[in-house]
Amino acid sequence: MKKLTDKEIEIMNVLWDCGALSMRDIVERLPEPQPHFNTVATFVRRLESSGMVTHKELGARFFLYEPAISREKYAEQVNRESVNKFFGGSYMEFISCLVEQQEVSVDELKDLIKMVEKK
After folding, report:
1. Number of compact structural domains in the chain
2. Which of 4, 32, 67, 118 is close enough to 8 for a disulfide, judged by CB 3.0 to 4.6 Å?
3. CA distances from 32 to 17, 19, 38, 49, 70 (A)
4. DSSP letter string over 47-69?
């Protein structure tokens, strides 16, 4: 799966949050300063060619674009690649790093353990 650029993630977040949208609707929901319509269209075409977005034609020159992959599925893939690349595939090393950097609290770790025990 292709790693997305920051601009592509902005567009995907709009689609993940809103579902199927026209190009104009996508542009309107992007943060200020809003990029030009043609710029967004180029990014959406790239996302479509990489399999991240699909479209439906509703009329002559009117398309709705929607995510082809969920936010969770994309995040899972990116996280897996990062853990493999930086921590030799060890999620324990990854979590240890978060703890050392004080990114995860003891209470959050306890909640994580409870979640794992339920599964």
Report:
1. 2
2. 4
3. 17, 20, 16, 26, 25
4. HHHTTSEEEEEEETTEEEEEESS
Confidence band for 100, pLDDT divided at 50, 70 and 90: confident
Instruction: State which of 67, 82, 102 marks the end of a domain.
Output: 67
- Which of 43, 58, 42 is CA-nearest to residue 10? 43
The span from the CA of 51 to the CA of 57, in Å, is: 17
pLDDT in tens, 27-37: 999 999 989 99
Q: Is the pTM of this model over 0.90?
A: no
Is residue 17 within 8 Å of residue 31, measured between CB atoms? no
